[in-house]
Amino acid sequence: MTGIGAILRKELADHFSSYRFIILFALIAMVSLITTYMVGMGLREELGGIAKPKFVFLMLFTSTGPLFSLVQFVAFFGPLIGLILGFDAINRERASGTLSKLASQPIYRDAIINGKFLSGVVIIAIMVISIVLVVSGLGLRLIGVVPGIEELWRIVIYLIISVFYISFWLGISILFSILFRGIATSALATLAMWIFFSFFVSMGASVLANSIVPLETREDPERLMKHVRVQRIVSLISPMQLYNDSTAIIIDPMRKTTRSLVLMGPIERLSSERFRRPLALSQSIYVVLPHMITLIAITFICFGVSYAVFMRQEIRSV
Amino acid sequence: MGKKPVIETHNLTKSYGSQVAVNDLTLSIEEGEIFGFLGPNGSGKTTTLLMLLGLTEPTGGWARVSGFDPTREAIKVKRIVGYIPENIGFYDDMDAVENLLYIARLNNMADPVSSPKIEEALESVGLRDEAEKKVGAYSRGMRQRLGIAEILIKEPHIAFLDEPTLGLDPEGTTTITGYIQSLSRDKNITILLSSHDLKQVQKISDRIGIMIHGKMIAVGPIEKLAREKLGIDDRDISLDDVYMKYFQEGSP
Predict the structure, then answer these.
(1) Which of B71, B79, B106 to mutate to test the interface with A (most CBs of A within 10 A)?
(2) Which pTM does this prediction carry?
(3) B5-250 is classed in which CATH architecture?
(4) CA distance B229 to B199
(5) Confidence band (pLDDT; 50, 70, 90) for A36?
(6) Do B79 and A106 touch (CB under 8 A)?
(7) On chain A, which terminus has fewer CB atoms closer than 10 Å, C or N?
(8) Coil, helix or strand at residue B19
C-alpha cells in the first residue's frame, strides 16, 4: 500500500480547501437546518398535549413537513455530492500533466485510485454524519425527546447505508473521469447518469409495465398485480430506488414491507392493519437486507470496474 | 569508460496494433553518463522512456535498469529513477514547497527529513524567493527549474529528462543545461536526455543516440559519428550536420 497515505492526505487537503466542498457543505447545512426546523416545529405543534408516540425522534428524519423530509433530501441530493467530488478525479491530473509524474513515483498505480476513492468516502462520511448531527441536535431542542438506544442504532445503520449509497455515485463519477479525457465531458456524463436514474428509470418502469402487462379499463386484480410487480422490478435497477426502500424501512419502524399495498396478499394486509406495532430492529434489517447487500455490492462493483480500467490504461503525458 | 551499464535493453519493442513505436532497441548506458537521445517527434523516444520506467509494457525484448526489470519490479525502478515528463505538470493551486513536499511524501520521506532538502533544492535552482507563490503563476522556465528541484529532492541514481528545454528562451535553456550538467557532475546521476536542442545536447552529452521511426540508427560519441558519417575529424563539428545527415538517410 505504498504511497496511499500520502495521496489520501493530499486529496483530503485538496477537498477541504476547495470551493466546491465549501459550497456543497454550506448548501447541505442550510437545507438540513431549514428542514429540521420546519419539521421540528410541525411535530411540536401536532404532538402538543398528547402522549408522545414511540420513535418520535425518527420522525424528524421521515416527516415531510411543507417541503421534503431529510431522508428524501439525501436520496435526491446525495448522488450530487458523490458526483461533484469525483467527476474530475483522474482526468484533471491527466490534463495538467501530473498523472504521469505521479505514476513515475515509487508507488503502486492502484494507490492513486484507492487514495482518491478513499478521500472521497471520508468527505462523504463527514458530510452525512454532520447532517445527521445537525438534525439530531436541533431536533432535540425543538421536540425535547431524547432518542432511545434503538433509535440510535437505526440512525447509525441509516448513516452506513447512506455513505455506501453516495460512494456508489462517487465510484461512477471516478469511472467516468477515467473513461473520458475531457473534464466537461465527464461532468456531463455523470449528470446524465444521475438524471437517468432519478427520473427516467421510474418513468421507464411504468412504460415497460404498460407494454408488458397493459392495463384494461375493467380492472382485473391479477393483471394489476402483475403490472405493479413488473414496474417494481424495473425500478429496482435504480440505486436510488434501492436506497429509498432500504432507508425507509430502517428509519421507520412502522413500515414492514417495501412492497406497495397492491402487492400485499389479503392476509398480509389484514395482519399489518391489525397489528400496528413497530418492527423490531432486527426484523427491519431482515426486510431490507437484500436491498442493502445489493447497494453495497454495486458500490464495490463500480469501484472495481474503475480500478480495472485504470490499471490497464496507458499513462502518457500527451 | 569501461564502467558497468546501468541501463540495458535487448531487442526492446513496443507496438500499438500494426504501428511499431519502438523497434528492436538494443542499448546500453553506463553509469555517470549523459546520454543524448535525439530524433524527430513521434520517433519513439518517450515510449522508450516510459518502458524503462515501467509505465508501459514492452511487447517484445527486455530492459534492465540497475539490474531491475521495469515491468516486474516497477517500484524498485521508480525508486532510483527521477523522471521529468515532457510538459511537466504541477498542482497549480499549491505553491512550490507544497508540490515538492508531496513528491517527498510519495517517496516515503518523512517531513523533517525532506524540508531542509526542499529548501536547499529551491535555493540551488534559484526559486527560493518564489517558493511561496502558487505554481500556476510560474513561467515556463520556472516550472522546468521546479522539475529539476524535484530530481534534486528525490536524489535518484538515474534521471530521465524528456525535452527539459522545450519552449524555453535561450537564457533559460542555458540555465537548465547547466543544472543538468551539475546533476551529472556533482551528484553522479546517470542522465538520459531527450531533446531537440542540438547545441545544448552537444555541449553536455557524452554519447548520443539517434532514433528515427522507432529504430536507433546511430549510437556513439559525436566525434565518432561525425567521423563515420561526414568523414570529418575535427573538434569543431556541429551536431546539427551529423543529425541532418542521419536524418536524411534514415527517412524513407
Answers:
(1) B106
(2) 0.87
(3) 3-Layer(aba) Sandwich (3.40)
(4) 18
(5) confident
(6) yes
(7) C
(8) strand
